[in-house]
Amino acid sequence: MIITVPTTPYTDQKMGTAGLRRKSKVVMQKNYVENFVQSIFNVIGDLSNKTFLVGGDGRFYNNIAIQKIIKIAAANGVKKLLIGQKGLISTPAGSVVIRKNKLNGGLILSASHNPGGENGDFGLKYSNETGGQVPSSVSDAIYQQTTKISEYKICDDSDIDLSKLGSFEYCGMQIEVIDSVKDYVEMMQNIFDFNAIKKMFANGFTMRFDAMNAVTGPYAIEIFENILGAPKGSVVNFIPKEDFGGLHPDPNLVYAKELVDFMFSDKAADFGAANDGDGDRNMILGKSFFVTPNDSLAIITDNYKLIPHYKNGIYGVAKSAATSTAVARVAKEHNIGYYEVPTGWKYFVNLMDSNRITFCGEESFGTGSSHIREKDGIWAVLFWLNILAATGKTVEETTVEHWKKYGRSYYIRFDFEGVDTATADTLMADLETKLPNLINQTFGDFTVKEAAPFVYKDPVDESITKNGLIIYFTDGSRIVYRLSGTGSSGATIRVYLERFSAEDISQNPLDMVSPLAEIALEVAEIPSRTGKVKADVIT
Ligand code: VG1
Ligand code: CO
User: Fold this and answer.
1) Separation of 368 CA from ligand 2 center, angstroms?
2) Which of 92, 314, 339, 345 is the most buried (most CB within 10 A)?
3) Residue from 74, 58, 7 nearest 34 by CA
């Protein structure tokens, strides 16, 4: 049954910020998935004693790719695969399953928050035994393999039915189709005070959770409606669809419009939340109120004592460099460790494994903790529900009180999308050269204190990563520039703007950062070089 098939390399199989992400049509090319998966197995080496998880966010082409992965794994002598029922597993649930069952790793098929469908994107994230995505040293080795691959092994047998739970043998390999939801739900019950949240719902508290037609629907129905007793209908868009029903499953003010409109209407629930395609991102809303992911991380950290699993103490916290400094002030107040890493969850893994941090987050709607090694959308929602249940306060009260105590970091991200790759690369290179000259220069009310590339040295493996350019101003404001590593065509320039105010906490964020935006565009010459005078997406 096992055959060896000759193949020729693709030149573009390099993983970005979070796995390999390409247009579905690119991935549908002959041997594209085969080449990539065989390259991963080539790098791992001896597979005879190894067990992996396979599953994904349910998007278009997942089912076909999963069948290919099964056949290639079997042909390469993998001992066993755990596969999410119907091929579904959220990114955080995948991390739970890998860690709980001490697996050697997993392949999570998702392009996360990118749209799906035949004309959308496809993705593949590769995690190791930590339950987190592999470090760059490993993804680089896999990329090297993909550039010289000449053959792959595959089991020439029929497709497998993944709709029913159970264990069986296939082409000499063991397969276990697992419940995608169970282990994850159990873990959440061990972290949070489910009784307190249940009581809050019993007393009439209302919520709306938007699963955006992606993978978190089944998890959310089970946790929020079935177990915690939120009224039926609290979870919307809960059936995972191959094309996410045409939605762009990115939980932010732009793409989760349906939820945002509802939460800013007079019918609003007490609490609103959405997750992304693969369930690792979250957006938190109150009645007519939006909590930025930056503030959410700070508020979660500040309130750890309210949560059973964390109440006896936490290690430090970490954020990506682009994320606002709100959580830094909380870390200082609680006298805990504080770390800044490059963008991408994989940079948090060593910090968690070495007990340096408990919580971490990114401005891009990612929040999480050392309970797993991925960001975790439903975990963040439960954290907020637990805070509200413990304090009896609203989302807005909780956030405003936080600002009163710590001051407020006004924060906005500008994305310039679909920029020609060479133009974007040159823009960043030229800007980097210019940075030293900016120091001490004054722009209106703002004086540059420092300007430099962000360079990170991992304290555990001592690897060096350079990602993004940062301008620091004397008043604590910052501009961060970086190129996206998750797009599937062209380049996206991200400009992150942050302005701190200790007392003035009720201004409009866009108004507050707009002087910084002007400086940011001017210094990097974005309009003249890209032809764009405005950002395509503002979040
Ligand atoms: C984006 C975000 C980053 C996040 C990454 C993966 O990367 O900015 O913070 O970790 O997506 O998120 P980039 O390189 O496009 O800025 V997801 O939900 O894959 O899993
Ligand atoms: Co995601």
Assistant:
1) 12
2) 92
3) 7
Tokens of residue 429, six digits: 């290179």
CA angle (377 as vertex; 372, 378 as ends), nearest 5: 90
Binned at pLDDT 50, 70 and 90, residue 421 comes out as very high
pLDDT tens across 467-522, in order? Answer: 999 999 999 999 999 999 988 889 999 999 999 999 999 999 999 999 999 999 99
Structural tokens at position 446: 């703002």
Q: How many residues does the chain have?
A: 539
Rounded to whole angstroms, the Cα distance separating 152 from 72 reads 8
Average pLDDT over residues 334-355: 97
Distance from C-alpha of 389 to C-alpha of 278, rounded to nearest angstrom: 27
Sign of dihedral through CA atoms 532, 534, 536, 539? positive
Tell me if 217 sits within 8 A of 240, measured CB to CB.
yes
Question: HSE (CB half, 13 Å, CA atoms) of 225?
Answer: 16
Nearest atom in ligand 1 to 482's CA? 16
How much distance in Å is there from the Cα of 363 to the middle of ligand 2?
13
Hey, what amino acid is at 289?
A: F
Is 94's pLDDT higher than 90?
yes
Rounded distance, CA 5 to CA 71, Å?
A: 13
Measured in degrees and rounded to the nearest 5, phi and psi for residue 296 equal -60, -45
Distance of CA 79 to the CA centre of its chain: 30
Nearest Cα to 114, choosing from 63, 59, 62? 59
DSSP 442-484: EETTEEEEEEEEEEEE-TTT--EEEEEEEEEETTS-EEEEEE-
Q: What DSSP letter does each residue of 193-209 carry, written as one string?
A: -HHHHHHHHHTT--EEE
Question: Is the CB of residue 408 less than 8 Å from the CB of residue 501?
Answer: yes
- Per the listing, tokens 């929020």 go with 224
Residue with tokens 């629907």, as numbered in its chain: 217
Instruction: Look up residue 38 and give its two tokens.
Output: 């065989």
Asked whether the whole model's pTM tops 0.85, one would answer yes
What is the residue whose two structure tokens read 């010459």? 525
Catalytic residue, chosen from 24, 110, 112, 127, is 112
Distance separating the N- and C-terminal Cα atoms of the chain: 52
Residues with CB under 5 A from ligand 2 (ion): 112, 276, 278, 280-281
SS3 percent helix, strand, coil of the chain, rounded to 5, is 35, 30, 35
